[in-house]
Structure prediction request, 755 residues.
Amino acid sequence: MYCVILLICGTEFEGEPNMAASSASLAGGSASDLLRSSSSGFSGGVPLRTLGKGRLVLKKRDFTVAAKLRKVKMHEYPWSGNIDPNVKGGILSHLSHFKPLKEKPKTVTLPFEKPLLDLQKKIIDVQNMANETGLDFSDQIHSLEYKYQQALKDLYAHLTPIQRVAIARHPNRPTFLDHVFNITEKFIELHGDRAGYDDPAIVTGLGTIDGRRYMLIGHQKGRNTKENIHRNFGMPTPHGKALRMFKYADHHGFPIVTFIDTPGAYADLKSEELGQGEAIAQNLRTMFGLKVPILSIVIGEGGSGGALAIGCANKLLMLENSVFYVASPEACAAILWRSSKAAPQAAERLKITAPDLCKLDIADGIISEPLGGAHADPESTSQQIKIAINETMDELTKMNTEEILKHRMLKYRKIGKFQEGIPIGPEISFNMKKRDLSIANISDGELEIEVEKLKQQVLEAKKSSDPPILDLDEMIKQLEREVNKEYSEAAKATGFTDKILKLQEQVSKANADNQPIDQLLKDEIEKLRVEFEQQLSAAPNYDRLQKNINYLKELSKAKHLSHANKDADTFKQELKKKVDVVFKNSRIREKCEALKAEIEGAGVSSASDLDDELKKKIIEFRKEVDSELVNVLELAGLDVVVKQDTANESGLEELNEEIKKQIENVVNSSEDIKSKILLLKSEVAKVRGTPDSETKNRIDALVQEIKKSLAEAIDSSSLKDQYENLVSEPAGGNLTNEELREKVGANHTIGSANA
Prediction:
């Protein structure tokens, strides 16, 4: 990138002869090569290539205009050059150089957390040992995990002041801009103090929270060593950046929200020379005169004058594990005890924690943090801050200008009053966590002893040659836990853990409020599910996860079949009972006994010898029994389709087909019969209308001859056997002998021959 520097001097300056030129001599240059300036009064221009070689001097009215082309570094903006400012919620919603870190910060364990962390690792090791042996110690492990959670809650419910100081200084604790980007819909960062300097430790800007505009001012610490050096570790210098924004907000009527997170004002020699103390005092005086509501929130450590310079507000809120002090515990210990090792005692005496400051009426409320500190769940902490801002501003914006100024003055006038023996509690507590009275006091030593005992049990069970056999349900439950664990590891490896937890929190909130999940949230869940499935194959434990899922499917299928078989056996037993009821019916039994007596009284040896009337009775009784059984099956929830018995019908069709086939074979093989049939056809063809007696006699004679020839030629023995078999099955076809004869008549062969 190039820039042109113009110098205008009041005295005449002569340049080098080869570089000096008049406007007339340069008039011949092309328009694209000329640098024009309407303010200089020249009609001509200066070629750009000439400016890059040296200095050019032009004379007019005793003024000298000098121009030089310099190469400078292009400023890198966080947004692209072809943005559309009219796009709502687009790229211009947040304008700041602050960007998410490319790499996740390393996990930092505080000294007082290490014993519990070691216990957690031991519990995980025991669980892995149990999984390797295939033994079920889930109940014992769940009990240990529950006790671990209780111990963790107990630890954070009874933190000492110096432990809260350590949490407030945690390297991964969310910074001012982290909270701003979590709670604002739009944010535009404003830079500079209009005096030539932009303090990187102070970040200011305009932001909207739930549609309401605020001036947001806060200390900005770094998230790593490089950022901390750039941000000067959150220690502001005595420049007027925050002061300018206070006046800007007061002029335009923007409520002010300040975020305090600094170890103190920068106390180097240069800052003292520039008047660090005077700058702080000027901020204090200005803030007391601002006519807009001011809310200050301590999100980390609020140290000395650096915190107070932006902390004179109508309301001062503190995060649960933040601190606010006039001197750090280490500095206080070095002054009073002449050793920084006495910092825990100094922290206790200084009363720097949120509960202590609320009792002293210095802080006006406490904003809760998740278990483990704000760094454990930054998004949740930011939402708690947002709720506190909205509630406080709803109260302050109802005041007029005079009431706001008086409210701010009275807040600081009442600080310092003290009466022994009467504890003073906070008037306001924003979502402050109530102490869980059910928490059992479990020491780290007791929990460690239980872990070691369980470890010994697992080792002894591992040596045993007869491991316990798990039933199908227990195996499925154990495998489901392993699959869930594998899914959690895969989500963590692919970077989906935070997104999943955020959606779980939204769903839990909707369930807690007894509200149905809206379609937008359902779409987000479905979108996240699709993205997770697409990225799942990239997880390092993908093969193990798929193996467990397939095994779980097989076990679930086996369980389903087992339950289906049990249900089928139960259904069979119930159905058998209902069928037995039908056959034990007195009416059915009486009819059955009566039919038996009639059959025995008939004195026949086979069913084919029964008369048609008795056969009809048997068929009607069978239909009645079938009807009763159908009713029983339908009452049992089964769909019953009654099929007609077509065994006899199919036998008749086969018999008729056999007769036709034999007739065709006889006709085709016998020339005599074929000639008689042709003669019969010719005689029939000669007849016009009603035949006379002579013609009729000839036709009847030919028919009788054909019948006789067919009867002699056809093998009637096999056909007779088939007919006798059909007659001997009265119950199979539900037909009497008379009906069967109608189906297979004596004239059937002649009819077939005529056809």
User: Anything to note?
Assistant: The chain has a mean pLDDT of 76.
